[in-house]
Write a structure and sequence with these properties.
- There is one protein chain.
- The chain has 12 helices and 23 strands.
- By secondary structure, the protein is an alpha+beta fold.
- Strands 14, 15, 16, 17, 18, 19, 20 and 23 form an 8-stranded mixed beta sheet that branches. Strands 1, 2, 5, 6, 7 and 8 form a 6-stranded mixed beta sheet that branches. Strands 9-4-3-13 form a 4-stranded mixed beta sheet, with helices on one face.
- About 30% of the residues lie in helices and about 30% in strands.
- Helix 7 packs antiparallel against helix 8.
Length: about 425
Amino acid sequence: MAYHLLDDLPDELTLVPRPVQVWILLTLEIVVKTPSGRFMVAKQPYYSDAADPESLFEGAWAPPFIGVPVPQRYDVAGSPKVLRQRFTEVEQNIRPIELIEQFLYEMGIENPAIEERSSFAEIKSSPRNPHVVKAYKIRRFSVRSDLSTSKSNLADPDGRKGFVFIPLDEMDRYIVQGRAADGKPLWTFLGLPLMTNLATVLTWPSEINRLRASAIEIAPEYFFHDQSGLVVVLDLSGYGRTVRYVTENMNSLDASGVELADFFRAKLAQWFAELLGAIGARQIQHAGDGFVCGLNHVSERGLTTLGAELRAFQDRIDGISARLPREYQLGTRLAIHSGQFRYGRVGGPLSAVPGFDGETIVTAVRLEQALAVQAQRHAVKHVAVTTLDEAAELLLFDGADWSPTPEEIELSSKEFTTRTRVWLRGAQVAP
């Protein structure tokens, strides 16, 4: 099915094929302005169908929207004239501003100023089901709110609302712009296409200027949190070497080494998720075979839980190592540091995912890296270091199988050097 703007088609044209679904979309055009530029808020409303591996649809960016179905009757919308009539009939019975205000409330945007802009209609193949032809009337609404709470929710610092921010000032730099043979706009941002209704609006210079003029000013600090607490860095030692060994040397009756290695990676990801969930970590940055996480307001009970969950995770790792030659056994390196740190979209609106920043983060990571030689030096599988006081360490490393080094030792990584004691657990043994 070729792509068409309904306004370009004569009333009596026979549509072949006819649209099998007709929708009115109330799209919300929200633009934010920061010192780095102006950005339009978008999100990914749909994922691809995991049960359909042949699907070419990966997802797409769209402005937040409300979909209103247009019922099909016995006289299927077979011409632009009938489509326009269907749109008009349904629009007479909806209150778009009320629907939008409710939707914005759920987004956390309060006391909005809503202004309708020029509408248009599209006829196209469904991006998720290319064999299905649909018609959409796009009713566009500009939204502004200068309340601090609204700005916090729009900035989406933790990324939990799923917002992305499409640059309006350097579009040629960040957006790949093209057009199909049938005239459909083919624009991509961060590797995903823009829905045609969004791309169409961005092809109109006058509308881009209106979007820029409606921007809500948001200071950089809305995009992240400055806070204090514990920074926990955990890394598996020997992970890559172990995966290669499993891939090349281990087979079972019904699985190859590659399949066993995939199973191991999936199981490890599950164990990481269970550990992080049990200690209440929601600010997390994964790094393949490890993670950095932030914990706020950690109590004595929280430290005890962290220590118990760490031990349970290490016991699981030891269960795998017991089946491997000594040189391929796994271990853990743990560093815990306290202080102030930053979490969120630390690079501003163009940060695709939240992350960490700050000297506390750098110190924690350097502490973990400096432990690399300590496991081999002390012939243990698990090593840990903290900058906490003795009472806190005793809560974390409770049990006779954890032992500190008798004296402080030097830890160095890049430009970082310190002297402290290191905690040790699990002697290396041959299987």
